[in-house]
């Protein structure tokens, strides 16, 4: 009786619980969350002979993945790394990536995920801020490491290739990458070691006791300052999120009757260095013994569709821009979506038009979720049994509380817009070596302040309204105006600059820069070329407006809102 009263109280305080699928419990048993080391070991032994990851048509089993991961862990230990030391990984979705992630974790070390498209400046900050001792980089981007190397504090550099772990087929894949596609620029990194070499002939790794509160990942995010800082994600944070995802989704993933060896296959087009793919397309798949189809270059939509036509898959993950590009491709109708159980989206808002197109092509709605690097990432998600796109970000997942609060931290009534605040076992331990930023982001009662504006609907679903931060979201990737402004301002021909995001039908938003010139002859093309030398491509301003002055407050702060209003009113004159 007392238990029923408690459950009734919970449902009054947390209205979303009344709308949970019957198979989904309201909470986790947090004492049983465990670590990612437990998850990796258990999955690779339970599903040993199943294919775990596939890249360029070559698959490796769970057992092969574990052997290679343990060999990498043994090599790290032989370099003198101690428990908790950081290992930076700079690769797209190739077989070497999950192997090095797992090996780093098995050895008791911390993974620092690095976007392989980063410039030397961006790479230098992240490696040095994290204190990484080892960097693993795909050879296609090793020239960037060479440029940054004089400024990096590293012990060793490891060079991976697209063909690692593929045997003879890997030789062909590497030949095509180097000589046909010419994707590898010359580089000179004396003392570096090929990943394939260090994986061969390694002795056994020394088992390490890893605790739930040990740090698993430093997941870098820009935050309101524009200076990239590492969200400290513990084994407990990510393992909890994997378990939460399991409770929410597994009841719709049951195997067909009479097929005990049925295996789910996830199309993994989002890069594993992105927190959404890391948790949902790598760690969660371990839990259910599924295979991940690794897509190294999802921007090649024609090649992507060709791969889909030749593959069996049951699960799909992506962002709005990817779903839109696929749905509009001329040959998407020849792809067999018959076995697909669901398609999940995150990273950026999914547009209703895209969701309609996707369902028309596949017969399945897009299930939208929401989260941040700081929440490992899933905080809310739509029910997996929806028949139509909802336009909301769904319900808080088990053991997760969402509060909508005003600027003073007061809870707001249902239906009023305020800051989305999140509490649960998946919320980060804090920002790496940034207690000041951690204090700003956390409330006294343990909620993470997302910086996003949302409302709670009567049934407990959350609908996002806007973002409190000035962050620009380009195809699911965060762009922070301060960082771009700093680069623009460092150009000798620029007096000052301001950056905002403007709506775009393809990428959600694009970066727009308002520039006051010091040199009247400076052109938009020259400025973009300068930005490309210092910024990842999606951060480079797509639109540039040259002005005589920038609108400012009495204390000199640029009014970005006024700049947006100018564009909407058609008063801004774009040059480039």
Describe it.
The chain has three domains: 37-47 and 61-210, Rossmann fold (3-Layer(aba) Sandwich), CATH 3.40.50.980; 233-468, ANL, N-terminal domain (Rossmann fold), CATH 3.40.50.12780; 472-569, ANL, C-terminal domain (GMP Synthetase, Chain A, domain 3, 2-Layer Sandwich), CATH 3.30.300.30. A nine-stranded mixed sheet has the order 2-1-11-10-12-13-14-15-16. Strands 7-6-5-3-4-8-9-19 form an eight-stranded mixed sheet, sandwiched between helices. A four-stranded antiparallel sheet has the order 17-18-20-21, with no helix packed on it. The longest helix is centred in the N-terminal third of the chain and has 17 residues, at 62-78. It contains 17 helices and 26 strands. It has 576 residues and is an alpha/beta fold. Helix 2 packs across helix 10. The chain is globular, with a radius of gyration of 24 Å. It is 31% helix and 23% strand.
How are the elements arranged and paired?
Layout lengths: L1 H12 L22 H11 L4 E5 L2 E4 H17 L7 E5 L5 H11 L3 E4 L6 H11 L3 E5 L3 H7 L7 E5 L7 H13 L12 E2 H5 L15 E7 L7 E6 H15 L15 E4 L6 H14 L2 E4 L6 H9 L5 E4 L1 H8 L14 E4 L6 H11 L3 E6 L6 E4 L13 E2 L4 E5 L12 E6 L6 E2 L3 H7 L6 E9 L5 E6 L4 E3 L2 E3 L1 H9 L4 E11 L3 E10 L6 H11 L8 E5 L12 H10 L7
Parallel strand pairs: 1-11, 3-4, 3-5, 4-8, 5-6, 6-7, 10-11, 10-12, 12-13, 13-14, 25-26
Antiparallel strand pairs: 1-2, 8-9, 9-19, 14-15, 15-16, 17-18, 18-20, 20-21, 22-23, 24-25
Helix pairs in contact: 2-3, 2-10, 3-4, 5-6, 9-10, 12-13
């Amino acid at each position: 009786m007392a238990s029923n009263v408690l459950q009734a109280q919970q449902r009054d305080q947390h209205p979303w619980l009344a709308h949970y699928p019957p198979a989904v419990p309201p909470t986790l048993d947090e004492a049983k969350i465990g670590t990612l080391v437990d998850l990796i070991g258990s999955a690779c032994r339970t599903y040993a002979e199943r294919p775990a990851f596939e890249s360029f048509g070559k698959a490796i089993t769970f057992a092969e993945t574990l052997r290679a991961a343990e060999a990498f862990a043994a090599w790290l230990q032989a370099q003198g790394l101690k428990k908790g030391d950081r290992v930076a990984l700079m690769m797209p979705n190739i077989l070497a990536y999950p192997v090095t992630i797992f090996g780093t974790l098995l050895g008791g070390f911390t993974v620092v995920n690095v976007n392989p498209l980063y410039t030397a400046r961006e790479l230098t900050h992240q490696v040095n801020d994290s204190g990484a001792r080892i960097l693993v980089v795909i050879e296609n981007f090793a020239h960037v490491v060479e440029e940054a190397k004089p400024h990096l504090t590293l012990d060793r550099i490891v060079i991976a290739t697209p063909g690692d772990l593929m045997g003879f087929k890997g030789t062909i894949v590497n030949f095509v990458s180097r000589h046909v596609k010419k994707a590898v620029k010359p580089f000179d990194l004396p003392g570096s070691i090929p990943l394939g070499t260090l994986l061969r002939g390694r002795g056994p790794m020394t088992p390490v006791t890893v605790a739930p509160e040990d740090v698993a990942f430093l997941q870098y995010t820009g935050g309101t300052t524009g200076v990239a800082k590492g969200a400290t994600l513990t084994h407990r944070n990510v393992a909890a999120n994997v378990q939460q995802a399991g409770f929410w989704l597994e009841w719709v993933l049951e195997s067909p009757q009479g097929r005990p060896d049925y295996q789910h296959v996830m199309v993994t087009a989002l890069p594993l260095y992105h927190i959404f793919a890391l948790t949902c397309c790598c760690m969660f798949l371990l839990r259910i013994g599924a295979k991940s189809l690794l897509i190294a270059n999802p921007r090649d939509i024609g090649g992507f569709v060709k791969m889909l036509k030749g593959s069996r898959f049951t699960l799909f993950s992506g962002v709005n821009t990817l779903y839109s590009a696929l749905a509009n491709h001329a040959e998407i109708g020849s792809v067999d979506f018959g076995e697909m159980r669901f398609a999940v989206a995150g990273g950026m808002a999914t547009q209703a038009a895209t969701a309609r197109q996707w369902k028309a092509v596949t017969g399945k709605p897009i299930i939208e979720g929401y989260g941040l690097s700081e929440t490992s990432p899933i905080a809310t998600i739509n029910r997996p049994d929806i028949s139509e796109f909802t336009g909301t970000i769904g319900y808080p997942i088990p053991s997760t509380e969402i509060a909508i609060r005003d600027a003073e931290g007061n809870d707001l009534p249902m239906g009023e817009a305020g800051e989305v605040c999140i509490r649960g076992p998946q919320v980060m331990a804090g920002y790496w070596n940034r207690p000041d930023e951690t204090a700003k982001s956390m409330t006294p009662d343990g909620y993470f302040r997302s910086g996003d504006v949302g409302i709670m609907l009567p049934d407990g679903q959350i609908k996002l309204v806007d973002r409190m931060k000035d962050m620009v979201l380009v195809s699911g990737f965060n762009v922070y105006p301060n960082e771009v402004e700093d680069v623009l301002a460092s150009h000798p021909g620029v007096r000052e600059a301001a950056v905002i995001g403007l709506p775009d039908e393809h990428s959600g938003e694009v970066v727009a820069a308002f520039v006051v010139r010091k040199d009247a002859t400076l052109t938009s093309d020259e400025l973009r070329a300068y930005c490309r030398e210092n910024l990842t491509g999606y951060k480079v301003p797509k639109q540039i407006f040259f002005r005589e002055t920038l609108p400012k407050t009495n204390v000199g702060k640029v009014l970005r809102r006024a700049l947006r209003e100018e564009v909407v009113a058609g008063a801004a004159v774009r040059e480039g």
